[in-house]
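Sharing a chain and its predicted structure for anyone who wants a worked example. Both blocks are below, sequence first, tokens second.
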Amino acid sequence: MEIRNVTNISLNVVSELIGQIYQAGLDGCWTNVMEHLRHITHSNKAIFFLQKLDQPRPIGFEVRTNFDYDPMILQEYLSNTLDDPYLQITGHLSEGEAIYINEHLDANSLIDSDFYQRILLPMKSHYALGGCLVRDGVYESIYSINRGPDDAAYDSNDFELIQLLTPHLSRATKIYKDLTLYKRYSSISKGILDQSDKGLLVCDENGRILLANLFANQELEEHEDIKVIDQHLTLAPSAYQMRLKQCLTQCVNQPHAFGEQESILLERSAGETLLVSIAPLTRDSEFVDIDHPCCLVTLTKQNAVRWPTLIKQYGLTPKELLLIQAINRKKKLQQLTIEMGVTYNTLATHLKAIYKKMGIHSQAELMVSLGLFRS
């Protein structure tokens, strides 16, 4: 819906509010949005909430009022939201759809009810405009503005403004929801994820990668025995992949975080191995805050050459390093002429230069020297 003049509110004010809405989607601060919305609509209250359906309390909640109220009443409302007759009216709405609740429900018919007297009346909720922001079967988000029984009812201009704002609020709330989940996954521990000596990934039961550190990403890019296919962690050959699926399923179904760890050992050339360890991460852990059970997959290289140290020690060039790494993988010079696109004599010349830098005279001595740099 295009921005046009609604009620007596200027376009600049509406544009500013829409800007605040999208900023709230990014930083999660809905206070200014709700206060601004309450003010320009002459409402006594503006409420926003985002809730995961399988959890008892909202994961995002903001209320702004122009009156004092007993906080215990609000707490009671949050514990009994499903009993709210106004909220029940919004049950048929689609994402981004607005509603004037009083056109569908006579608030005067509720005055003698226990819920109205106990919660709605003290919270001055008689007239209500609002909309559905998220409704995807997993999350639910609704917002509303209210006026009390002694205030004037909302008119068509007020409703037109809410119809204009609701799609923007819906898009911003989805951004907020996605970023909140990402931040929760990221909160596992920045210090641990920044480790440079091992790879760390967070995967769900199906092996979908939710988070990975730099070491893990490099390992997934450089090797064929462990890689990403359609955003899922994949091992080769297929027997290892079957074992990985079994470990992931077993770990996510463990009742406690950091229970028994499962491991897979990938054998590589030149005696190097990659230890793949899978341990459970659950929402009950004090270490993480994740909405559903996941696994922490740790990649640890064993018997691997510390190449950066070797380069620094002997001043090796990039081409020399590639040659040594190929020899470490048991490649023969004749085979490398094709792979590296150079002649046998060129490779032999590079190898002699390497021997000179390292103070050795043969490939046998080269392998012994590399052993001194293995972790």
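Comments welcome. The chain has 14 helices and twelve strands.
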